[in-house]
Amino acid sequence: MSVSMGLFCACSSDNQVPEYRIQAGVARVSGKVSGSLPFEINEQTGAIALSTNNPLIAYDIQYDATIQADGTFVLDVPVACTHLGYIRFDFYEGFIYLSPGDETRLDISFAKNGEKHISMLSNSRFTGDDMTNIVNVMLDFFTNAPRGSGTVIIQPEEFSKETMEKIEKMSAMVKRHTELSEAAGQFVTNSLKLMYVVNSLFAYEESMRSRDKDANEDAKEKNDFTPLTPEKSYYACLKQFDLNNSAYLFCDYYFMTMQAILSDKVLNIPPIGDTPIPDWLKEVKAIIADYIGADTGLFYDVLAANAYSKQFKDGKLLSDKQKENIRHYYTENTSFAEILFARDKDLAK
Predict the structure, then answer these.
(1) What value does the mean pLDDT take over residues 116-130?
(2) Could you tell me the pTM of the whole model?
């Protein structure tokens, strides 16, 4: 079965990469399923699931809807910024553009021969083909991901270097996928870069334990292997990732990177508690600014929000003092406070 895809409308005629920001709002996804449907719309075939994440509260959520009898559907999805969600029907799945105050139109029609035609319309730099091609490129990467040194136990610095070499190879692999638009290629590259940060750089000890286990799986006696603990300087390579890049808001792994940094035992960043955010950030910057390569910017605002999210994950609601600290710090962009307070209210229920 072939799939033909319409194009998204570009948000501008130039090739400049737009600046993304935290903006609480609602993104609408609407559309219609029409034509010679090879199935009857019912509770199963008409079910729609749309998954999205929030880069501030480290929280994935799924929104559900149902295709109506006339084939139309509408989902209103609360979002924290412009990014890609993932939509699933019984007969189609792929990424979809979500942006506060914007609407993405997704029409799916079936020809008499069963051929499926997908048309998308949105204010984005992605093409309709991108939504399917991104999935295929990701699958290709995971099937043919750059390999490291196998079961060999290596020093933290060597592991860091090996990881950066894998990222270079990965970036070259993505560039060979010329079916992706420039925007889609950037999204895939950024997503995979941050995946390496979370699953590789911040997982040195786990990786070495796994390698040792693989190398000695046939050993009769238990092997008491203890990997080295990296020094803080191990994380100097983080400055190569430009973690202030607002395009990372598109990627699920951005908030995972924040959580990895906050949970790392080597960096040992203190819980935020009732400490005013500027005071807490002063402590944090003394620890990581040299490794991040910056002491201001989006990264620190998102990191502070994720410090409260880490608390949420531990089952703790915001104290009155914390709410006051959040209000006083996020004055230029109140969406940060709005999103944190909404999550706190949901948890309180």
Answers:
(1) 88
(2) 0.89
